[in-house]
Design a protein that fits this description.
This protein has 286 residues and is of the alpha/beta class. The chain is built from nine helices and eight strands. The chain has one domain: 3-Layer(aba) Sandwich (Rossmann fold), CATH 3.40.50.
């Protein structure tokens, strides 16, 4: 196999990407040279346990599961010396304006480290120029009901492919496949403190993972007045940041879990949530 035809899987460790990895292990779709997991260092413990399980199974089939990282997203956000990769935090302005901060975290902590690993494996790490014609395939777990998110890659050395679309599978087909193969407990991949969590997630976290719940509550409090770096530079937020859409401290939220449509977690190229309108360069409200 030449470097121009290397095949990789973007492994978010959620439903669709787990399905693709297991299908490859079973020989039902072409295999991968490696499955690449971008680790923000703040995934729920259940995701890391699931990833360990997938790593063992993939290794038996000759597929490496590679963990890459751009750092610890939680620690970086609270570090006055670190650039803040803006999260889609809910904002409340000084006059009650409601909005959201722009989202840079997916690009910075997931997409960029995956691209860097692909470049390295092709033999052209940054800043080397990747020659024309040298290209890898990146399999992405987008199913038929999410076809609108299937897009070409924005760099010439990677070509996105979508095996679930080729199979005509929907997310429900993936869930059925996982249940039939003993993986009904596959979690959703996302940071513990992702603002896109609904009340079902927060309620489960509070009940089943009190330490992670406390971690999220502490983070919510710490970012109330903006990023640590901006505050250290004397540029506090004009308004407040919140993890919960109610825009009250997470520890005080009255959680109302209710049935919601099943949606994917936050994969590198598959986050189902729309980016909010851009705020100004400092992420300020108003």
């Amino acid at each position: 196999m030449t470097t121009a035809t290397r095949r990789y899987l973007s492994l978010g460790a959620g439903v669709q990407s787990t399905t693709l990895l297991l299908l490859a292990v079973q020989g039902r779709i072409p295999g991968f040279d490696a499955a690449v997991f971008a680790d923000t260092s703040w995934e729920p413990a259940a995701v890391y346990r699931h990833l360990d399980r997938l790593t063992r199974i993939a290794r038996q089939a000759g597929i490496d599961v590679i963990r890459v990282t751009a750092g610890d997203i939680r620690a970086d956000a609270l570090d006055p010396g670190h650039r803040f990769a803006s999260m889609p935090l809910f904002t409340l302005g000084p006059d009650g304006q409601r909005g959201m901060a722009r989202r840079q975290c997916t690009s910075e902590y997931k997409i960029k480290p995956i691209k860097a690993e692909v470049r390295r494996r092709l033999g052209y790490p940054h800043p080397a120029r990747v020659p024309a014609g040298v290209r890898a395939e990146m399999a992405i777990g987008i199913s038929l009901d999410e076809i609108g998110r299937a897009r070409d890659c924005d760099v010439a050395y990677m070509r996105n492919v979508f095996p679930l679309l080729d199979l005509g599978w929907r997310r429900t087909d993936c869930l059925r496949f996982l249940a039939d193969n003993g993986y009904a407990d596959t979690p959703k991949s996302s940071c513990v403190g992702c603002p896109f969590h609904d009340d079902r997630f927060w309620a489960r976290l509070k009940a089943d993972s009190p330490q992670e719940w406390a971690d999220a509550v502490a983070f919510d409090t710490a970012v109330r007045n903006g990023s640590a770096r901006a505050n250290a530079q004397g540029r506090p937020l004009r308004g407040e940041f919140f993890l919960h859409r109610q825009r009250v401290p997470l520890g005080e939220v009255v959680l109302r879990p209710r049935p919601q449509p099943d949606v994917p977690g936050c994969g590198p190229w598959t986050c189902p949530h729309h980016d909010p309108p851009r705020q100004d360069g400092r992420g300020e409200v108003g």
